[in-house]
Design brief:
six-stranded parallel beta sheet; Arc Repressor Mutant, subunit A; 2 domains; Rossmann fold
Length: 209
């Protein structure tokens, strides 16, 4: 049985385009809305299997709708579709249990796979999104292997502190900080060239905030 799909976007042309794209794929659209409050009202009343929502809508955002669904224990799975590539949107979405997150510019290529994945209870987060924000699940996993001191040093490196400044702040010598850096590079399996650690830290800066 095909999942029931609800869609919402405050831009009529984008909503129409999404609807046509889904109809081409013979997907069962049960309703649509052009603002967040109407979308939430429909989801609460009808509880479709999946709701595909724009992140930014008047009255309620896609994130706010997802929070309401979670608070009310609704079974509707939320897929966010957005122009936003910022890391904070991605992390907020993951934190509140969003099932899917794709960029509008790649919706044609990804929407079918996303719906199929979500229908099978497997969250789908756009590979293109992760590439754009420089985020990897491996980054989070590898941090678990680091000590508190090593994480503290990475945070200071992300603030562009030099070895001497870090040593001063942590009451140790610049040479000790250099030894820490070498150990971190080994744990992260990074190239041993001069800028590899700084490049990695800046790419994953959100992990240290």
């Amino acid at each position: 049985m095909k999942p029931s799909i609800f869609i919402a976007d405050d831009h009529p042309l984008l909503l129409k385009g999404l609807e046509e794209l889904l109809l081409e794929k013979k997907i069962n659209i049960v309703g649509k809305a052009t603002d967040g409050q109407s979308a939430l009202n429909y989801i609460k009343k009808e509880q479709p299997d999946i709701a595909i929502l724009d992140v930014e809508m008047p009255l309620k955002t896609g994130i706010e709708i997802a929070k309401e669904c979670k608070k009310n224990n609704l079974e509707t799975k939320i897929i966010l579709i957005t122009l936003h590539k910022e890391i904070d949107f991605y992390l907020r979405a993951k934190k509140i249990g969003i099932f899917g997150y794709i960029l509008k510019e790649f919706a044609i290529e990804e929407i079918g796979n996303c719906i199929e994945s979500v229908s099978n209870n497997i969250p789908y987060f756009s590979k293109e999104l992760k590439n754009n924000i420089g985020f990897t699940e491996e980054s989070v996993t590898v941090l678990k292997e680091l000590t508190m001191s090593e994480k503290r040093i990475l945070k200071l490196i992300s603030e562009h502190k030099k070895n001497k400044e870090i040593g001063h702040l942590l009451f140790t010598s610049p040479r000790t900080i250099e030894n820490y850096r070498s150990k971190i590079i080994l744990k992260l399996d990074l190239p041993r060239d001069t800028g590899s650690l700084l490049t990695w830290v800046l790419k994953n800066k959100h992990l240290f905030n």
